[in-house]
Description:
This protein has helices at residues 14-28, 44-47, 64-71, 130-139, 152-160, 171-176, 210-216, 222-238, 286-307, 309-323, and strands spanning 6-10, 36-40, 77-81, 93-98, 106-110, 124-126, 144-146, 166-170, 185-186, 201-206, 246-253, 256-264, 271-279.
Amino acid sequence: xxxxxxxxxxxxxxxxxxxxxxxxxxxxxxxxxxxxxxxxxxxxxxxxxxxxxxxxxxxxxxxxxxxxxxxxxxxxxxxxxxxxxxxxxxxxxxxxxxxxxxxxxxxxxxxxxxxxxxxxxxxxxxxxxxxxxxxxxxxxxxxxxxxxxxxxxxxxxxxxxxxxxxxxxxxxxxxxxxxxxxxxxxxxxxxxxxxxxxxxxxxxxxxxxxxxxxxxxxxxxxxxxxxxxxxxxxxxxxxxxxxxxxxxxxxxxxxxxxxxxxxxxxxxxxxxxxxxxxxxxxxxxxxxxxxxxxxxxxxxxxxxxxxxxxxxxxxxxxxxxxxxx
Length: 325
C-alpha cells in the first residue's frame, strides 16, 4: 500500500496544467487511488521564452528538467506533450502510458477568419516551428514568416493585437483549452503533416517503480501507442528532432497502421514523401504489435533517407548553425 502521494511533475503553462490535471483525474478515478500532488517545474523552454526554438542549443527544451526531477525521485510521474519528448529517454525512465490521441492536425488562426489560401499576398504568419515554416513556404512561397513564442493564449492574444495576419497552432491544444472557436481552418495532413506524436499526452515514470507503473498501466491507449511508436521510430531512425522540418502521421484503419511522412526544405523548394502500412490488430499481444509498428516507422525512414532526406536535413542544420548566435 502506497503511503505517500503520487507526485506529478508538470510545466506551469495552461496547457501543461490541463494535461497534468487530466492525468490526475484519470488516476483518481481508479479504485483505491493514492493521494496525488502536482509539482510545477520550470524548463529551459520556459526560461528562454523569447528565443526562437531553433536557436536554443540541444533538445528536450520542455521536458529535460521534468525528467531530471523524475530520475532524482523529486517527482514520481512526468506528464508531457509527447511531441516534445526526445525519442531516447533518460536512463531509468520508461514511457509508461500514452493517452488517447486528440486531433493531430495543425490549425490556422487568422485575424479575419480567412483560410490559408485566402490570406493576402505577403501575409505575416507566426510560428516557432521549423516544420511549419517549411510546409507553409511549400504551399505559399509569398507569405512572410514571423517568429511566435509564448503559451497558447499568449499567441492568440498576439494575433488579436494585429502582430500577425495568421498563426499556426496544434489543434489538440486549442481543443483542450476550449479555444476551438478561434480556428479558421484545419490544415490537411496530406500536404501539411503534423509533428511526430502531436496530440498524444505521454506519461513517464521510473522503470524501477512498479507501484507507480501499476497505476499508470490502465491509462495506456493501444491505438495511440501503436501510432506514436511508428512515428517515433521513424524520427529516431532519421535522426531528426523538433528542429528538423519533418512531419509524420500514423493512422489506424480497419486494423491497418498507415504511416505517411515528409521532409521539406525550409524554403519549400523540395519535399520528399514516403508511405508504408502494416498490421495493427485491435487485440492480441501488445508487445508484438508495438514491434511491428516500430519496424514500419523504420522502413518509412529508410525510404526517406534513400530519397535524400539526410542531405536536406544536413543543409538546413548547417544554414541554421550559421544564423544562430
